[in-house]
Amino acid sequence: MELTNTVALVTGGAHGIGRALCRALHAAGARVAVADLDYAGAQQVAAHIDGLALEVDVAQERQIVAAVERAERELGPVGVFVSNAGVAFGDGPAGAASAANEQWRACLDVNLMAHVYAARAMIPRMRARGGGCLVNVASAAGLLSQIGEAAYSASKHAAVGFAEALAIAHGDDGIHVCLVCPQAVATRMIGFDDEGRQAGADVGFGGNDVDGILSPEAVAECVLAGIREERFLVLPHPQVATYFKRKADDHDRWIGGMRRFRRRLAGEDS
């Protein structure tokens, strides 16, 4: 897909992967709407790329619809919609089922339902225009798992399944679906600030950094390549493909390996 003169709307665009994507899309010639709950942050990003800042809570469908409508009024038809906003909270003290209901709902609302809302808003428009691209940023946790993050993992698995359903149902409408599944990225979610400096104690995110921590800019370049090449699955950490195959080949063995990994992370193995 050619990005020059395309209009792109990016959720979670004020920080991390979203900010890097806004900048990369602008550099590729796109006109960019920067959507985020952090409106001041969205304004800062938009100011540097001559973009449009939008205050959006992606858990609210009406706000996503309003963002699309405003972006199309001010920038033109949206050809690329990037569902990038995400949240994670960690398990509660009693294990995988113990996070608060509110945290489970927030993970599902932001990590899954926001993708559904975006698709509802965009598919009729894209179909009428003969095509477009939906970029759904999930996680390697949606293909594998994330130790200590049951709600996050479950929501990302659901996001993967929804992206597959979109690609199956709407590929013949000319709508390309791009599913992005990185491991660790130097963002606020794992304790980095916007300049890539370690700013907190949560670096590692349950062993997610085992294959290295990528910069948001590196992930953005992988995503743009996936959009241009019209690939479904984008794996910024290519090792994930091997892990996913091993999981499919012998699920029980994979679970056993993940148990050992959990014990090692918890310091339970001598």
The geometry reads as globular
What structural category do the secondary elements indicate? alpha/beta
Rg, Cα atoms, Å: 18 Å
State mean pLDDT (0 to 100 scale): 94
- The CATH architecture is 3-Layer(aba) Sandwich
Low-confidence segments, ≥5 residues, pLDDT <50?
Answer: none
The H/E string reads EHEHEHEHEHEHEHH
User: Helix share of residues?
Assistant: 40-55%
Instruction: State the CATH superfamily name.
Output: NAD(P)-binding Rossmann-like Domain
Count of distinct structural domains: 1
CATH class: Alpha Beta
The end-to-end distance, rounded to whole angstroms, is: 52 Å
Number of helices: 8
Question: What's the arrangement of strands in the largest beta sheet?
Answer: 3-2-1-4-5-6-7
CATH topology: the name is Rossmann fold
Largest sheet: 7 strands, parallel
Strand content: 5-15%
Q: Report the count of strand segments.
A: 7
Report on this model:
The protein is of the alpha/beta class. It has one domain: Rossmann fold, CATH 3.40.50.720. It is 47% helix and 13% strand. The chain contains 8 helices and 7 strands. It has helices at 16-27, 39-49, 61-74, 101-129, 150-170, 216-229, 239-249, 251-265, and strands spanning 7-11, 31-36, 52-55, 78-83, 132-137, 175-180, 233-234. It has a 7-stranded parallel β-sheet, sandwiched between helices. Strand 6, helix 6 (216-229) and strand 7 (233-234) form a beta-alpha-beta unit. Helix 3 runs parallel beside helix 4. The mean pLDDT is 94.
Topology (elements, then pairings):
Elements: E1 7-11, H1 16-27, E2 31-36, H2 39-49, E3 52-55, H3 61-74, E4 78-83, H4 101-129, E5 132-137, H5 150-170, E6 175-180, H6 216-229, E7 233-234, H7 239-249, H8 251-265
Parallel strand pairs: 1-2, 1-4, 2-3, 4-5, 5-6, 6-7
Helix pairs in contact: 1-2, 1-6, 3-4, 4-5, 7-8
